[in-house]
Amino acid sequence: MSFDSGKEPTDELDLLVGSTVAGKYHVDRLIGRGGMGAVFQATHAAIGKRVALKFLGARTSQDGDAATRFQREAEAASLAESPHIVQIFDSGRSEQGLPFLVMELLTGEDLRQRLLRELRLDAETSVRIGVQVLKALRQAHAAGIVHRDLKPDNVFLCQRDDEPSFVKIVDFGISKLQRRDIDTLTHEGAVLGTAFYMSPEQAQSFPDIDGRTDLFSVGAILYEMLTGEPPHSGPTYEAVLIAICTRDSADVRGKAPAVPESLARVIARALQRDRQDRYASAGEMLTELEASLGEQTPATKTLAESSPGPRHRYRTLVLALVAGLGGFAIAAHLVTRRSGERDARATTTTTRRPAPVVSALPAATPPPASAAAPDPSIGKASLKAAPSKLHETPKTAVKPAPTASSGVAGGLGLSTREP
Fold first, then answer.
1. Cα–Cα distance between 102 and 88 in angstroms, integer?
2. Strands of 25-33's sheet, edge to edge?
3. pLDDT at 74
4. Nearest CA to 41 among 27, 25, 20, 21?
5. Residue 86 in contact with residue 170, Cβ under 8 Å?
6. Are 156 and 167 in contact (CB under 8 A)?
7. Tens digits of per-residue pLDDT, 15-45?
8. pLDDT of residue 260
9. Whole-angstrom Cα distance, residue 181 to residue 194?
10. CA–CA separation, 5 vs 32, rounded Å?
11. What local confidence, expressed as pLDDT, does residue 268 receive?
């Protein structure tokens, strides 16, 4: 979700904070604003639920196309029912006549903000985000809706207890409802969308845009998450469009060598210039993307083995315990063996001692008990009782650990940022 940093002159939007809209939404604060309008945090007066209110500005609402796109946003998001698409609860006009949408209030950040902070993401995180985007598109395309403006700004990463980066797709403002005979938002020669993520057919304003244009955008987003830059670039908006239409994208592994080959193949297919060579559906791409991390390159495996994650630390602890217990067993065994050897030597010495000289006594007098000859078998029994070798500590096979991988936002972008 992106907003312009500059603030427009005071207008009706600046007076909304503190007011009640449509008799039930109390406007609490401004979340952000852009060229078309603004998004506010509000509270439903009757039930206390916090929501986001998106308004069109007075001047923008007089533009017929802008007003149509605004209404299209509500219609498209409502038709494409998915937990990964922002929910829109209501729509209407304020007392000043400004169109508004009532949406779920999202807490977190959009993917653009994440990339600006971290530059690039690891393969596991990128795939997890891409999978959720494709789940949203699978529902949208099934309902006959093509988004046509997928970009990091419109991929919102929500903060939830069960998923730290739960994806919500936002801003269906220029979406195409394929169920209609005429796409009222496409004029001859008009190009709608954001250049870096636009498919070649969209860049050339083909009249028969379908869901495969969104899959190209997903491929471009995956490419940027992994490398830190989009697959095509240029000094101007037009130069980017020309590059998309005339040049194949480079292999993602040229800039991110650790990316698994299977994941690179998924991205390459999604970025094919001829849409016939791309995935036929979001579901097909979703299946292959989910399976793409099953194959790892040697570089990825090395990274996994050297990763200081929790499983790696657990493996190190197990090895240390095994080594310690093994050392203790060896030491105890040595002590036992040495003790047995000392007993054996003592017994052997007693066996070899000559019999004591007995003084001449009367024949009827038996020799004293202490003069009896020792039993030679005693020494042999002691030697047999001593251990003959060390006990071996069982070896434990340890497998390498696998590779691991705010703010309040209203949900929908208000402007299309061009390069």
1. 6
2. 20-21, 25-33, 37-44, 50-56, 99-104, 88-93
3. 73
4. 27
5. yes
6. yes
7. 889 999 999 999 999 988 876 788 999 999 9
8. 95
9. 25
10. 9
11. 98
Residue 290: which H helix or E strand, with range? helix 282-291
Question: Which pLDDT score, from 0 to 100, does residue 56 have?
Answer: 82
Which pLDDT belongs to residue 227? 98
Could you list the active site residues?
149
Measuring CA to CA, how many Å separate 39 from each of 53, 135, 149, 349? 6, 26, 19, 99
CB 190 within 8 A of CB 148: no
pLDDT one-digit tens code per residue, 127-162? 999 999 999 999 999 988 898 889 999 999 998 877
Amino acid code (one letter) for 259:
V
pLDDT one-digit tens code per residue, 295-346: 554 444 443 443 444 444 444 444 444 445 455 454 444 445 555 555 544 4
d(CA 368, CA 153): 107
Query: Which stretches in the chain have pLDDT values below 50?
Result: 1-10, 178-190, 297-323, 325, 328, 330-335, 344-419
The pLDDT score that the predictor gives to residue 97 is 84
C-alpha dist (Å) from residue 206 to 69, 91, 172, 190 = 19, 32, 19, 10
What region does 189 belong to: left with phi over 0, alpha with psi -120 to 50, or beta?
left
The burial class, CB within 10 Å (0-12 / 13-18 / 19+), for 216 is: buried
- Rounded CA gap, 192 and 199, in Å? 11
Task: Say what the pLDDT of residue 386 is.
Answer: 39
Altogether, the residues listed in the chain come to a count of: 419
Q: Are 258 and 299 in contact, with CB atoms under 8 Å apart?
A: yes
Domain regions of the chain by residue span = 12-310+405-409
Helix (H, G, I), strand (E, B) or coil at 223: helix
CB 152 within 8 A of CB 169: no
DSSP codes joined into one string, 172-191: -TT-EETTSSS-TT--TT--
The CA distances from residue 243 to 106, 148, 277, in Å, are 35, 19, 18
**What is the reported pTM?**
0.66
Q: Checking DSSP bridges between strand 176-177 and strand 20-21, what pairing results, if any?
A: unpaired
Q: DSSP state, 90?
A: E
Q: What is the CATH number of domain 12-310+405-409?
A: 1.10.510.10
CB 262, CB 251: distance < 8 Å = no
Which residue has tokens 């063996």?
A: 337
